[in-house]
Amino acid sequence: MNPHETLTAKSLRALKWNYLGTVARVVLQFGSQIALARLVGPDATGVFAYAFLTVGLCALVVEMGLGAALAVAPASGVIGNASWVRSAVTTQRRSRFAFSR
């Protein structure tokens, strides 16, 4: 890593790795679900799909706002109370909106 690299260049590199990781995760999940469906049959695949959906939805609710709270954390590594309060309020608003549909 170049110490004289601009913030824009660092951000673009981080964005690239983030999207690359997301694409790799989606491809691996898709492949593993196909393999699982072939191995266990349709009934067990349906049960797994429901469980996977539940875990995925819970993960979305748990992760809402956490990244933003960590991004605004001071350099000392201690996250202030205001960040956690803002994160909790954001999570509550988003979950209320998501489940109101």
- Terminal residue distance: 45 Å
- If you compute it from the alpha carbons, what radius of gyration comes out, rounded to the nearest whole angstrom? 19 Å
Proportion in helices: over 70%
Query: What is the residue-mean pLDDT, rounded to a whole number?
Result: 76
Number of helices: 4
Question: Hey, roughly how much beta strand do the residues contain?
Answer: under 5%
Number of beta strands: 0
Outline of this structure?
Helix content is 80%, strand content 0%. It is mostly helical and 101 residues long.
List keywords for this structure.
101 residues; 4 helices; flat
Describe this structure as you would to a colleague:
With 101 residues, the chain is mainly α. The protein contains four helices and no strands. The protein has helices at residues 7-40, 42-63, 66-71, 81-99. Helix 1 packs antiparallel against helix 2. It is flat, with a radius of gyration of 19 Å.
Can you lay out the helices and strands and say which pair or pack?
Elements: H1 7-40, H2 42-63, H3 66-71, H4 81-99
